[in-house]
Amino acid sequence: MMSVLCGIMFASGAFFSLASSMCPESIPTVSIVSRCPSNAMEWKSAAEKKKCNFLGKIQNCTEAENFVYHCVLNEDTTELLELCAPVWFMAGYCARFSEVNKRIINDPGLECTKFDPPCPSRFPSNESYKCTQ
Hints:
alpha+beta; 5-stranded mixed sheet; two-stranded antiparallel ribbon; 3 helices; 28% strand
């Protein structure tokens, strides 16, 4: 009985952890784009147009200053998306946005440490313009 209870508590803890990292407020901000900004000036301009700093004040999934502009691949890696989302620390892989998980995710199939220029082994998801192929 105790092991079943511990299993249920562990499973619900894992669900809570995943649920707490979801950000449904990102979904309405998603738009498909033909390219992502390639430098800091373009990134700043796109971020201003997206108005994530304003939207950050009215969402509930993270601190306002952490709800920022991103330009990343979609989950299927078939399109580029602009959106507002909480910063997620990437572990040497390209950032993708998962509409299912409602958050930025690492893509272990796209290791960006081998790009030219390479991505660092750990970087914030909103800084992907610094290491584009």
